[in-house]
Amino acid sequence: MSQRPQQRIVIVGGGTAGWMTAAALGHFLDDGFTVELVESDAIGTIGVGEATIPHINVFKKALGIDEKAFMRATHATYKLGIAFDGWLHPGHSYIHAFGDVGRDVGLCAFQHFWSRGMRLGFAKETGAYTLNTIAARAGRMHDGAPLTAQTVPAMPHAFHFDAGLYAAFLRDHAEARGVKRTEGMIADVRRHGLTGDVTVLRLADGREIAGDLFIDCSGQRGLLIGDALGGAYEDWRRWLPCDRAMAVQSPRLADLVPYTRAIAHPVGWQWRIPLQHRTGNGRVYCSDFVTDDAVHDELIAGLEGGAITAPRPIRFTTGRRREAWKANVIAIGLSSGFLEPLESTSIHLIQTGIARLLKFLPAGPVAQVTRDAFNAQFAFEMERIRDFIILHYWANRREEPFWQACRAVDLPDSLRAKIDLFAASGQIFREGEELFSEVGWFQVMAAQGIIPAASHAMAEAISEADLREYLELIAALYTREAGQYASHADFIARHCAAPMAQ
Ligand code: FAD
């Protein structure tokens, strides 16, 4: 038993953010801490957020979660990347795939060989040299057997899952590790007169919950970080003007593809997320350019198999809290900020918020320098993801007024520098702990029409014939490899089908 007084951690909210945080704290903290989660059944959760990126595997492994059990419980499917349909122009399509493009040959990244091949006129779109893209387009998934060719990289994958079932799955995990759940509506938040720290939450029925550290997972409202502490919010709509979404579910698709679809529309875009038992759909749009009614009608008319739920409107302001950690409150999830789900980054941001919390968790009083470091890391991470999303909108060749307006935005300096460097030299440098790798930036810039004017000297030095052969070899190798994989739908049916989806 620890000698120091027990620290009481209170998590406000039981959505994806709340239960991921609770599961992690329950798993990692010793008996020097108690963890209590408060959620309101009457308010409920946002109920969207069903596509992830491969980093979720780190969370899963750290918590000792079995992949197949988790997939069965959440009706999950595999995800090998995101198909962007119509983003460059109507009719165009590419996949931003997880994992490598081409082959790593050490000193010189693949993008240099590719860009020279493009300038010479024989290279194909990057997807032709990407194992995950080839497998995804063919509806196939590596079935866990050793990869056939030694030269083929492993296939990084993520998941699509049912958000409500995921929260329930994590709740079981958290409660089994001592997290206490309290159901009730928080009606009042009390603060310390001198420090401003939150001290007590009062529920509508009069119960009180005291704590030392509060994790605000209350969603868009930001009950503690915003309402109680008045934390400022930085608005990013000048770069990312979409401010609304409409979500609806439709029946399971016959072709259970292992990728998310992000389909560009004249205003905004639409997601399609295939699950074992149903399909998640939604439009993200800008209220300056289209009405809710028009989006509603288009969304319903375009659904395969019709709607099985009533369309749900959601409003949002893209941006972030200036301070995600203020006083003794740490915001994780939608309370800390919002970036539209174009690259499925919000659940990942919950995960990195939890990792930062564990890294900085104080054994005693919090020093301001700790908050500053936490907030600086949070700001950097959010801004770099923001830049990546702006890139998708900015590098378009569509004619509609919405897309023209997206092309006209004044880019943040950090993004401008990245695009200019790539366009001039083919170079991309990942900075610090930014989420997206060189390969991610490469895929989106290249597919959305930014072709470097020059390549690395090594790529410029090889003969045209050798370069052509090299590119053809990679494409053939990956096509052959993916051709041997199981169909994604069969793989799910055999190994991880949810009982009701079988
Ligand atoms: P919520 O789910 O809103 O949970 C808030 C919790 O706080 C609830 O339990 C509620 O009851 C509780 N609460 C609030 N007020 C009170 C009160 N007064 N008293 C007691 N309890 C209270 N992310 C991805 O990674 N991939 C995606 O594909 C994706 N798609 C998205 C699509 C859209 C349109 C939107 C808006 C978001 C999407 N996200 C996505 C983000 C994702 O949905 C969220 O990051 C995730 O669901 C976490 O939400 P949350 O837990 O912060 O908030």
Automatic annotation (TrEMBL):
Xref: InterPro entries: FAD/NAD-bd_sf (IPR036188), Flavin-dep_Halogenase_NPB (IPR050816), Flavin_halogenase (IPR006905), Trp_halogen (IPR033856)
Signal sequence extent: none
Pfam families: Trp_halogenase
Gene3D superfamilies associated with the record: FAD/NAD(P)-binding domain
Superkingdom of origin organism: Bacteria
Protein name, entry field: Tryptophan 7-halogenase
Upper lineage: Bacteria, Pseudomonadati, Pseudomonadota, Alphaproteobacteria, Sphingomonadales
